[in-house]
Every structure is written in structure tokens, then in C-alpha cells.
Amino acid sequence: MSFYVATSIAYVNAEPHIGYALELVQADVLARHRRLRGEQVRFQTGTDDNAFKNVTAARAAGVDVHEFVKGNAARFAALREPLELSYDDFVSTSSDPRHLAGVEKLWRASAAKGDFYRKSYTGYYCSGCEAFVTEPYCPEHGTKAEIVTEENWFFRLSKYADQILHALEHEIRIEPEARRNEVLSFVRSGLSDISVSRPAARSNGWGIPVPDDPSQVIYVWWDALANYITTLRESTQGDSFDQWWRDGEQVHVIGKGIIRFHAVYWPALLLSAGLPLPKTIFVHEYLTSHGAKISKSSGVRVSPVDLIDKYGVDAVRWWLLREPAKLGDTDFTEERLIDRHDSDLANGVGNLFNRVRGLAGGSIPEGPAIELTSTVDAALRDFDFRAATAAIVAAVDETNRLIETTRPWELSGTEREEVLARLGGACRTIAHELSPFLPSGADRALNAARAFPRLATL
């Protein structure tokens, strides 16, 4: 079976921060891990260009919106090299011709079902969410919503309430369980129809026009959600919709603030269009800095590129995978990053490989593998990156204990060779399982001949 993993696509109203790097690295590990197991893998990410907040940010910067979006989208695409990402496709929704054609096709399919109608509406609107909210204050951003009156196209979400509930109970997996329960509670409380367009005049025409109604543009979240299949249905590169979506396994990796869009609205749009539903949605928590959410909208930002320039990609990727909890936000500090690198990588993996290399005369010996693969597989099936990395650390500790108990420097002949082979096999297994987490670092662990200074990369 093929495996298709996709992140949410990022607003480009500001430069990328470490919170979004978390999502990219998590998805990258899932993709690399499946490739390591011999599976066919497709990893997609990209940028959400058509948001009204991008128009607002461009105006504030005194820059043409096209140039503003193009420049910031390039900054997100440029994370590939410093973060060692292995994505196969990067979609920019304002410029990718596959996306425009695919969104129009999806809209027309729902329109043919009679699932759109036009009406006037007054409600609380959050500019951060780019959506109407039910309360005067947005719970996601903690900001006061503005009262907006518009005439928009609405989608008959209520029509699909029973089908969505059945899908969530029996077909779509949501991890962790607490997030699944949250979505189920929301659906069981009743679904109302939702606005799916906005007046084009409000954004100076920025966005994808509603087919046959140029006075309206498609709401950015509707347009953005479609990216997961527009790149497949409109592909000229041989990507198969049947292979990657209809028949394969898909995983959406998203932040908790957009779970309703992915677990409720997105399945409804697919049901309306007569298309298969996604299989799995993994929801990660937020990173904070001194207790405040790291985000573009909050102004609390930590640059992943600056951290990599200062500490190296191994230190940054490892912290993002080793520290954040599966439930509950995690506070980031540089001190925690340094401590985790030094304890697990420099004094753990690095020290072990150099000890074994020294005992073996300069290279890592061949030897039998240790049992680690099934533990890592099980952890990643549960999207528990902390448990997966902990298993690798435990294997390092166990191998170090083997050195202390066997004392190979006191052995000779066959007995010594057998112990060194066991140590070499353990190191090679560790490097193999480490490679999805630290792609180049795992290779360096096997090949480097130098000691590991503080915060050196593997």
C-alpha cells in the first residue's frame, strides 16, 4: 500500500517559525520511516497564499501582494535544505496551475449536488482564523472578533452531519484520542451550514474566484483544504489519485487549532464531491516560549533557520522530536535544546559510536542487529515521536552497558571479536533506525572519526 503524508499549508503573512517546523519535521520522519521500510511514499507540503491576512500584511509592508506572497512562500520552500526535509511536492496555492484547476473542479462538483446557496449573514469574524466564530472573542487567538455583514455562498454542512459522524466513529482515525473526542462532541452538538466565500471587493480580488460568480472569491480555508487532492487530480507528472488517495493510506499532520477544518469541513466537502475520505488525521500540540504560543499572529516567533545556524540541524530536529508532548503544549528554550542535544546525542549516540570505533580500531564492525525496529514502528504508528526517540536512546544506553559488562579491552581472540560484532551490530541498528530522525546525522555517526564536541552535529 502507498503512503501519502501531508502537512497543513502555511499562511505566508510572515516568516516561518519553529512551531511550523515541528509539523514539517514530524511529517518528514513519517515519510522517511516508511521509505526505510520499503514502502511507496509521497510527502507534500506548501503555502496557503490566498488568505486575506496576506493582503493585509502586504498593505502594511507597502508591497504588491503578488510579490509579498511570492517572497514569503519562497522562505517556506527554502526550509527544505536547513531542516533536511524530503518532501516530494510543494504547492503554492496562488501560483500552482494544478491547484486553481482542481479547486474549480471540486467547487463545481458540490454545486452540481445543490450544496451551495447564497444568503446574507452577520456574525463574529476572526481575521486570524479567516473564518466566522461563534463568540465575540476567538478562543484560538484570544482576540476580539469583528462583526461582519456579508452576502456569501454557503455550504450545506448540515446535510452531511450524519455521514460525518459515522465516518468519524468508524472510518477516519484521529490521534490523539482526546482530539477525536473533541471533534465527536462538536459534531454531535449539531452542525450548521457554513460560509464558503467572501466578496471579492473585500480583498481587492485576491483569491480564487467562485466559478460563474466573479463577485465572490472562495474562502481561503475551502481553497486550502483542496490542496491535498488538487495536486493529484490535476497532475501532469504521473501522480495517481487512485494510488495515493483512493487506494492508499493518507495522514494529515496538522496543529490543533485547525482540527475542525480537517476533521469536519474537509470530509463534508469530499462527501459532497463524491470522493473518498482521508484515512488518518494526526493533531500535534503547540510550542510556546515562556508560556506564550509561538505563532505568526501572536508575534512570538523563534526562527528555525537561526537555531540551525547556531546549533546545527541535528540539535533542532532532535529537540522537536524528543521533547514535545503528544498532549499539552511544550515550552521551548535554547537551554532545553542544548541540554537535550548534549545528553542524548553528544554524550549518548556520539560517545557510544566513538567508543566502539576506538575499540574496533577505527571502524564500526559488522554484526547482528538488535531488537529496535518493532519498538520504533509501534511508536510511530501511534505518532508518538517522544516514545520512538526514547527507544533509540534506550538502545544506546543498553549498548553502553554492554561495553561496561563485557570489558572488551580485556578480551582477546574469538571472544573479543564476538563482543565487538555485537557492539557493531547494535551501533548499525541504532544508526539505521536513527536515520529518519537525523538523516545526515545517522550517516555521520557511522562514518565520523572525530570526537563529539559540545553541540557538534552527528
UniProtKB/TrEMBL annotation:
Any GO BP annotation: methionyl-tRNA aminoacylation
Keyword Coiled coil assigned: no
Entry's family note: Belongs to the class-I aminoacyl-tRNA synthetase family.
Pfam family, one: tRNA-synt_1g
Coiled-coil segments: none
Keyword hit for Aminoacyl-tRNA synthetase: yes
GO MF annotation list: ATP binding; methionine-tRNA ligase activity
Domain Methionyl/Leucyl tRNA synthetase: 134-356
Keywords for this protein: Aminoacyl-tRNA synthetase, ATP-binding, Ligase, Nucleotide-binding, Protein biosynthesis
CDD domains referenced in this protein's UniProt entry, alphabetically: MetRS_core
Protein name listed in UniProt: methionine--tRNA ligase
EC number of this enzyme: 6.1.1.10
InterPro entries: Met-tRNA_synth_2, Methionyl/Leucyl_tRNA_Synth, MetRS_core, Rossmann-like_a/b/a_fold, tRNAsynth_Ia_anticodon-bd
